[in-house]
Structure formats: C-alpha cells, structure tokens
Specification:
Length: about 400
C-alpha cells in the first residue's frame, strides 16, 4: 500500500466526521446539518464556498484555485441517507429514527472533506482548479441532486470529474474500475388500470382487472425475452401489484395498479422498452374492455465512464494499491447511480473502493446492519487525490458552451 504522505494521519479526523454524520443522517434534499458541517470545515481549510446555487438547496461546492492556468477538476461525494432503521449496535448508531447511512454516503462525504483538507495543505506546484462537489439526494427523491447540479451550470467549466462509492464486495485496499458503460439507466413506472367493478359471480357485468393485470405482467416479461435484441441486456421488473381488498372473495375491483422498474444500458433500448410497454398496456386493456395509463418516471441515464479518464484514474489507483489490488471489471452493474448525469456532460470516472468490514458478517449497502471498514478511507482519499493531480496535468478541454 502506497498511501499519499499525510493521508493516514488524516484518518482520526475523517473517522470523526464520518461518525458524526452517521449519528445524524438526513434524507435527500434535507441534508441541512450535513451541509452546514461541510461548509464549516471547507471554510476552516480556507476554501472558497459555493452555496445556494441550485434548486437543491443543500448542495455545496468547495473551490481550491491554485492561481495557475490549468483544467478544472471536480471530485464528488453524495451526502444523503436512506429512509430505514439503523439496526447496528455501535456507538455511532443513527440517532434519527427511521433514517440511516446504510449506503456509506457519510463515508464518501468525510473522505472528500479529507481530500479537500489534504489539498489545502499540499497545493504547491499544482495548476488549475479543484471543485469539491457535495451533492444532495443521490438516493432520490426524483430527480435527485446530480441532475439539478448539472442544470444549475455550476459545473459548466469542469474539464474532468471523478466520483467513488464504497463496495462490500471487497475489503479495504481494493479498487474497482470499469471503462465505458458501468451502471444501468433506471426508470420507475406505474400502470393504472380502471374499469367497471362487479360481483365475483357475474364477471360479465363488468371488467376483470385482476385477469387484465395478470396478462399484463406476463406480456411485460416478453419485452426482454422476445422483443429486444438478445445481445442487449435489460431488466423489466413489476415489483408491486395491487388490486381488490385483501381477502375479498366476492368483489372484482374497479381499479388496479402495477409498479416497477426498468434498467437498460443503451438509450435506444431504454426508449424502446417504454414504447413496447405502452402498446402492451393499451392492447391488453382493449382486449379486456378496460382502460390503462402508463406513467413513466425517468430517473437516471446509464453511467458511462470515459475510457481515457478511467485509464488515468486506474493508473493512479494502481500507484496506491498496486496492480494486483486494482480490479478491472468487465460487466456493468444493473444498479443505477445518479453520477450518470455528470458522465453525460463531462469526461468522468466513477470507481468503487472495497470497504467490507474485517470482522463479523458482511452486510451490503441498504441492509439495516450495513457498516464499513474505515481503513478503506485513506485508500480512496489517496486514489482520489492522485487521480485529481493527474487530471490537473491534462489539457483544458474544449467545451461547447462556456
Ligand atoms: Zn444506495
Ligand atoms: Zn450509494
């Protein structure tokens, strides 16, 4: 392990920030305490602050200007927690009932503050500008924080961008990168069926929305299996189906609702899936004499890591963890991540750092007992700082709109 000089010494401070945030988690767009802590710390490091620059009021950007010509490099951390109960038995357990940092965004925020502190003390010889982006609402609610930050124009001058996420699949000291498309697009949907309710003994006097909904669930499963190019991966999942009163045995309902998610890796496939869904809803309802409305809620596009930037970040990671601890991933994830919005505008790399606890069972992200190994923090801080220094040496990119 080849941590940057001074990173290991920052761990007590970074751990204290992380545990403070872990004890006081906040949901998306409500990260006021977190945002205040970030502002206070960035200010104490002598960084310039950008606040209240977009619809996501809790977003903060810290600016470090070296005073020398060069590119603008943005580093991003997400700050939001999840609406779930913390079931861990640790001193830094959440004190906010029903809210928990079960995805590690507390660690991302603390680590990025650590990187900002490190650069504030190691700025000599650097050129260009660093933007430390503290983003609200990665987990939603829609449209999430990244889209709003991009739309605000606050990153219009950014040449290159890097983000990172903890992973329970590996221990501290491992870094995982994936060039090209790394995470799926994510969309949600609701399908509302309505018709004429009727007696269970006289289905011919009305519409049977339960049969309609069942046919529709089956039809939707033929999109991926029969209608798309077999070499184009996608997922269509109906995750809830509500119709009728629980236990009802003699009443056919007048309303039904199906809800779920669609994942894809190609924008054309993504749109084709929704066009086919619309046809299936309309035709299945016509067959059964009822009506249906498909409501699509687009969430994130697919996340595409720029091959050149990913190669540079991977090389920086190999300097820190060694080539044998750098895992080059060849399959994208069907998960989605709103860092995708940045990758659409800015050549970027989003990498994963191993952070599985060394003792006891490993619970993955979004589990009520999720925790991570803080020993992973100086590793990702070193990787991010090294990557940023490499990117600051790259040429300034020509941008369409400046
Ligand atoms: Zn998450
Ligand atoms: Zn996350």
């Amino acid at each position: 392990m080849n941590l940057l000089p001074g990173m290991a010494e920052l761990l007590p401070q970074v751990s204290a920030w992380r545990r403070d945030l872990h004890t006081h988690p906040e949901l998306g767009f409500q990260e006021t305490r977190t945002s205040a802590l970030v502002c206070r710390e960035l200010e104490s490091m002598g960084l310039e602050l950008m606040t209240d620059f977009c619809e996501a009021k809790t977003a903060v950007i810290g600016l470090l200007r070296t005073g020398r010509e060069g590119p603008v490099v943005a580093l991003r951390a997400d700050m939001d927690a999840l609406p779930m109960q913390d079931e861990k038995e640790v001193s830094y357990r959440s004190q906010n009932p029903g809210v928990c940092h079960a995805c590690g965004h507390d660690a991302h925020t603390a680590a990025l503050l650590g990187v900002a502190r490190w650069f504030s003390e190691h700025r000599e010889g650097l050129r260009g500008t660093l933007k430390f982006v503290f983003q609200p609402a990665e987990e939603g609610p829609a449209p999430g924080g990244a889209k709003l930050i991009v739309e605000s124009g606050a990153l219009d001058d950014v040449d290159y961008m890097v983000g990172a996420h903890q992973a329970s699949a590996a221990g501290a000291g491992y870094i995982m990168t994936k060039s090209g498309v790394a995470a799926a697009s994510g969309d949600f949907f609701d399908i509302y069926l309505s018709g004429k309710g009727t007696h269970g003994a006289s289905p011919d006097w009305g519409n049977d929305l339960i049969v309609t909904a069942s046919q529709l669930v089956g039809a939707l499963q033929t999109i991926v299996s029969r209608r798309l190019d077999p070499l184009q991966p996608a997922v269509v999942s109906v995750c809830s189906l509500q119709a009728g009163e629980p236990g009802a045995k003699n009443v056919l309902p007048a309303k039904a609702r199906l809800s779920g998610t669609v994942r894809a890796f190609d924008e054309g496939v993504r749109d084709k899936i929704f066009a086919l869904m619309e046809q299936m809803v309309q035709n299945t309802c016509a067959l059964n004499g009822c009506t249906g409305v498909l409501d699509r809620q687009p969430m994130f596009p697919s996340l595409s890591n720029d091959p050149k930037i990913t190669a540079l970040v991977s090389a920086a990671a190999a300097e820190v963890v060694g080539q044998d601890h750098l895992l080059l991933i060849d399959q994208p994830s069907t998960g989605s991540e709103d860092f995708a919005w940045y990758t659409q505008k800015i050549p970027s790399c989003f990498y994963m750092f191993g952070a599985a606890p060394t003792e006891g069972p490993v619970y993955g992200g979004h589990h009520p007992k999720f925790d991570l190994d803080e020993g992973a923090l100086p590793v990702t801080m070193s990787v991010m700082a090294r990557a940023a220094m490499t990117l600051l040496e790259q040429p300034v990119r020509k941008k369409e709109m400046r």
